Amino acid sequence: MSQPITVAIERRIDPSLHLYARTWLQQGIDLASTRPGFLGAGWVEEAPGSDTWHMLYRFDDADRLAEWEDSEERRRWLDAGAAFAHEARVERRTGIEGWFDAVEGVTLPGEQVQIRVEEPAPPRWKQAVTVWVAFFPMNLLTTWLLSFIPGFAELPLWLRLLIATLLLTPVMVGWVLPFVTRLFRPWLRRGIAPHEAAPDRDPDSQHPDA
Q1: Among 111, 114, 131, 108, which residue's Cα sits nearest to residue 184?
Q2: Where in this chain does the record put each ABM domain (predicted)?
Q3: Do 146 and 164 meet the contact criterion of CB atoms below 8 Å apart?
């Protein structure tokens, strides 16, 4: 099952070329917006005059994201900014890690693009417990229901597991895990210090695409 992927990039920008960098970043968003599967993009300075800028873009699945990231247009665009913009960090949000993301974020005024506030992920053992709590009853229920199919118990073990996982995985990804992580969210976040509120942004530094 395909799912949207959000890419967040932190860049260091030469302070002497901020005006030029704004035009360059907007050009990148305009180029990405022409690609199939594009869902939105935006960028924001960490603070007025800061040399740390954050860019976000989102595609509807990994294949279309890869097409954009491997495209000649993107390569030429990156080359044009190589002298003044340098990637410091890149994050992708999808899959199991995405289920544990914080829901808080900063919505850029006038647009539907959201930049998520990064929070530390819950401890791995809590993530494991949450996934098990979701998986065990669903696996038990699926195994019980399949036992009513005549002849199913006589199938080879690998084939029974294949059928069960093919049926169970979309249900787990689409409904059960999101529901369980929302239900367990207070426990998952307990003991994790929230980030301080994001500083006010300079409205002129916000340029999400339409």
Answers
A1: 131
A2: 6-78
A3: yes
State whether residue 15 is helix, strand or coil.
helix
Q: What is the pTM of this model?
A: 0.47
DSSP β-bridge partners for residue 8: 56, 91
Phi, psi of 57 (to 5 degrees): -145, 160
Neighbours of 68 (CB within 10 A): 19
To 10 degrees, what angle do helices 124-146 and 157-171 make?
120
**Cβ distance 60 to 39 under 8 Å?**
yes
* CATH numbers and ranges of domains, the chain: 5-93 (3.30.70.100), 124-189 (no CATH)
Each residue of 39-78: pLDDT tens digit?
888 888 887 778 888 888 888 888 899 999 999 999 999 9
Please answer whether residues 202 and 48 qualify as being in contact, where contact means their C-beta atoms are separated by less than 8 angstroms. yes
8 Å CB contact between 132 and 138: no
* End-to-end Cα, the chain, rounded Å: 28
H-type alpha helices, the chain: 18-32, 62-69, 72-81, 95-99, 124-146, 157-171, 177-183, 185-189
Residue pair 37/48 in contact by the 8 Å Cβ criterion: no
